[in-house]
Amino acid sequence: MNRKRIYWWGERAVLVLVSCIVLFPILWMFLTAFKRPKDAYSLSLDFSPTLSNFVTVFSDPWNLGDMVLNSAIVASVTVLIAVPCASLAAYSFSRFRVRGRKFLFFLILSTQFIPAVVIVLPFFLMFRTLGLLDTRIALIVVNLAIVTPFVIWMIKGFIDAIPTDSEEAAMIDGASRLRVIKDIVLPMAAPGILTSSIFCFILTWNEFLFALILTRRDAVTLPVGLVSFRTERGDLWELMSAAGVMITVPIFIMALLIQKHFTRGMTAGAVK
Amino acid sequence: MRDRSLAYVLLVPAFLIVLATTLYPLAYSLVTAFREWDLTKQRRPGEFVGVDNFVHAFSEPGFQNSIWITTIFVITSVILTLLIAMSLALLLRREGRLHTFTRIILILPFAMSPALIGVSYRFMFNPEFGVIAKGLGAVFPSLEGVPWLASPDLAMAILVLTDVWHWAPYMTFMCLGGLASVPRETEEAARIDGASSWRVFFGVVLPQMKGVLLVIAVLKTIFALKMFDQVVTLTGGGPGTSTETLAFFIFNVGFKWYDMGYASALAWILTAIMMLISIWYVRMLLSERKMATA
Q1: CB 3.0–4.6 Å: which of A92, B168, B268, B281 could bond B218 by disulfide?
Q2: What are B48's strand-pairing partners?
Q3: Domain-located, residue B7
């Protein structure tokens, strides 16, 4: 009995410790974002919170607003292109047994494992010739490369889990395949598709390498914007933290909103 | 429309995207890998030089160093992530308020931008005003003033730490998914027969988790090989070249020295390594599925 109690407390102690390790860096960033510059360089928790860092990062010369806009546009358009295309492909992979299906699925899956730096080299050269460097279009195109295979994989996992009975019944009643997809499969797969969309949004929103190489001034996204707070006067931590809060908050809200599906979506593709 | 043709029609949009955004650039970079192309000297692609770029790689210290650094990084981060994820999953599969709370907040590190993770760890390990550096110094006086990110070994350790912090929670969810498919009955039976918790874990749970753990190990290996963001924002490859992973080295060759031919060759070496691992991975998945349906 005594051993059991020790174990009971030990388990809780470990969980509290894990929670602290997870939360501490995030909390510290949030605290720093609300500190005045002189407080940011002290460890004191006794400071009067201020919004001045947010005012600073949103005004000249940092103009974080432009970066928020770039990030939001790039991520949304990427999702709007990738998810519909991927959903159709996922349905096809999930329901039809046609020739070449295995090969195509293997081909698409394996592209997910190609390092981003390999893709970005030729794109840099092509965009340079086309005059598309430092544009949002360039970022959307390269992000599609990373996101599309991933989303196909995820949505296929969700569609696989939907039983085919009602589809078959509707087809016997004379409904066409496209009608079945629109009226039966789509509504049932909606939570899965929403989860995949948010996943896709998060990946694109956080994407760093492409934006670092392909943008300079006009199309800079938030993660790359972080680097600009490294100045000749040293790193401006309080401003970096304010920018960090701007990167994190929308994503955290999304992740927590779909928390249940989120964990299922994470495991759906890979474990199955 | 017949199902047969519809099956292909539905694939067309996604396939066009993959073709245009992945397969075409891959082919382009493969051709570039056999060319001489120094952007600082020539606007157009240069002569074909055969396998010179590849040969050059294996005789260059920078490349050899990055292979070594990448190997250390991949091995330590994969092992640590697996150990932590598996242990956490075992704790978290029980019910309880604290368990649910921990499960929810474990989503956060994965959702956080890796570039930002690098920045915030850099801040926390700053020897003058970093909260972790100062905190460790206060608890262990011998650690006061340690130049964390200026020491090669410690910088590498912190780089691994940021990566484990980012990925271990995600992998915990995958382990939880795997644990959910282990039937409770066999475990209960072993426990009733008087087996200790350790015996139950190693004798019953672990063998059934083998498939999932293998998948996680391979996935994590691939993610670790690709890891790039934190190198830029945390260490910048330094001090010296002590955290210059292969992905970062390729970036330097391509976008600091603008040697496109050489960078493409290096990128293809990295791709080859990852392709070998992923082919092995997909094969393993397919054979697992065969066993499951048999």
Answers
A1: B281
A2: B35
A3: no
Q: Which run of H or of E encompasses A230?
A: strand A230-231
**Tokens linked to A263:** 């964990």
Tokens of B167: 């990925």
Nearest to A106 among B1, B91, B282 (CB): B282
Helix (H) or strand (E) holding A234: strand A234-235
Contact between chains at A126 and B101 (C-beta distance less than 8 A)? no
Domain count across chain A: 1
Token pair 């909103």 is found at A257
Write out pLDDT tens, residues A97-152.
878 888 888 888 778 778 888 889 899 989 998 999 999 999 999 999 989 988 99
pLDDT at A164: 84
b/e map of A62-98 (b: 16 or more CB within 10 Å)? Answer: bebebbbebbeebbebbbebbbebbbbbbbbbbbbeb
ipTM: 0.89
Q: Is residue A53 part of a domain?
A: no
The dihedrals phi and psi of A234, each to the nearest 5 degrees, come to 105, 180
Answer whether B251 touches A (CB < 8 Å). yes
Task: Provide the residue range defining the domain that includes B192.
Answer: 34-293
Nearest to A24 by CA among B240, B123, B274, B247: B123
Is B115–A104 a contact, with Cβ atoms under 8 angstroms apart? no
Q: What is the DSSP string of B48-86?
A: B-TTHHHHHHHT-HHHHHHHHHHHHHHHHHHHHHHHHHH
Q: Residue B116 maps to which CATH number? A: 1.10.3720.10
Q: Domain total for chain B?
A: 1
Mean pLDDT of B113-140: 90
> What pLDDT, on the 0 to 100 scale, is given for residue A244?
94
With respect to residue A57, please indicate whether it lies within any of the assigned structural domains: no
Tell me the two tokens of residue A1.
Answer: 């009995």
Q: A145 vs B255: CB contact, 8 Å cut-off?
A: no
> What does the alpha-carbon distance between residue A55 and residue A36 come to, in Å, rounded to a whole number?
12
The pLDDT > 70 percentage for chain B reads: 96
Which residues pair with residue B259 across a beta bridge?
B38
CATH of the domain at A81: 1.10.3720.10
Q: What is the pLDDT of residue B240?
A: 86
Distance from CA of A261 to the nearest CA of B (A): 12
Structure tokens at B161: 């730490």
pLDDT band at residue A272, thresholds of 50, 70 and 90? very low
